[in-house]
Amino acid sequence: MSAGRARRGVAWLRAGWAACGAALLVVLAWSAAIGRSSRPTLDWQPDLPAALRLAGAARLPVLVVFGADWCPGCGELERRVLPTARVRRAARGVACAKVDVDRDAEAARRHLVDRLPTVLVLDAGGEEVWRHAGVPRADDLASALERARTGHRAPPDAAAAR
Known about the structure:
Mean pLDDT: 83
Number of strands: 5
Distance between the termini: 75 Å
Oligomer: single chain
Strand content: 15-25%
Structural class: alpha/beta
Radius of gyration: 24 Å
Shape: elongated
Helix content: 40-55%
Largest sheet: 5 strands, mixed
């Protein structure tokens, strides 16, 4: 084998190892991202009454997510909206509760839930200040949480449109 052929072979070998290393880095980064998205996104209370007790005692607004295990939109809300950085930041200082409508149909009836998911933001007094039936945009939910934390209400026409 000539020296030129040997150098080309070594160059191909180095390029192959570099490609393998790059592929490994991509796989590791992807795995880390998957691991982050499967972590709990917010500080969920065990149920709605617990969230309301916490909110009342600490004068906090409440985020309530009505859903069910079988609901595709609920899964999308869990994967694509709640884990966003803006929603997580906005939910600091907010009592959070998930209500499974199959387990607590009475809470769904009491809050007039007729579509899943339904997301409510309640003020510190337990009064509804924002509602969205379906999967909300992360920015809309974050804005509603920020307004509730600062005591500002959504404009009447915006609340009616939801």
